[in-house]
Amino acid sequence: MRWKDRGTALDRPHVGPDPARPASPLVTHRQENTTMAETDAQLRKDLDQLRNDMTQIMSDVRTLAQERREQATSSARAYKDRVNDTVRDYSEKAGDTVRHYGEQASAQGARAADYASRQIESQPFTSVIAAFGIGVLAGRLLDGRR
């Protein structure tokens, strides 16, 4: 509504203060100050509550992070222990297997040496001729390679 369209107070159909304008600038200013003071106090209260909430959230996040770190460390230690146990078991099994095959090879070598010894004792002439023949054959093979 434009100023010229408003007319005078007498031209208006209602009686009393204009609802569009405050009755007294002094009363309005006091109401605004009270409202601003209340708003300011409420904002400060809300800000303090927000700070408290953020502090609590940060504390909760730190606690959760610490718990997760402890869980991860515990899980890693348990996994490391399982791996060490598995490696130790396989190492022991490999050692046992090597010992077993070593003992078998040693026993087989001892049997072969014993057999050869018995053969030489029972047939000394044949053994000397066989050794001579093997020597000649080895000499020719090695001489032919030069």
TrEMBL record:
Residues 1-40 are annotated as: Disordered. Residues 1-15 have a biased composition (Basic and acidic residues). This is DUF883 family protein.
